[in-house]
Specification:
mainly alpha, globular, 4 helices
Length: 105
């Protein structure tokens, strides 16, 4: 990753997430890198970012009151889940490609 990209990621991270969300985000990154063995890159950032957004939406769910708000929350959560799946697939694909290259060497 380029230094410029990492600086932009850090700015976005600080700007958009609350301190408690930053904690969740870092926990998700740590799990993804050390447990799932995903390769740190832009896809990993967005994967963990959407996992954190999902937690944000779930924390707001008790405050939904009428049908329109419930519908909006459900659609938002569905879109976030789709993004999580997409980035997880990208991470797994990259992980498999890397492990195949290691086997070739």
């Amino acid at each position: 990753m380029s230094d410029n990209f990492e600086i932009e990621i850090a700015k976005k991270f600080i700007k958009e997430l609350t301190p408690s969300e930053q904690f969740v985000f870092l926990k998700k990154v740590k799990e993804a890198v050390y447990i799932e063995k995903y390769i740190p890159d832009e896809n990993l950032f967005y994967y963990c970012y959407f996992l954190t957004l999902r937690e944000r939406i779930r924390a707001l769910l008790p405050y939904r009151t009428n049908g329109l708000i419930r519908y909006t929350f459900a659609e938002t959560l569905k879109e976030i889940e789709d993004c999580i799946k997409e980035y997880k697939e990208k991470l797994r694909k990259r992980q498999n490609e890397t492990s195949e290259l290691d086997l070739i060497k």
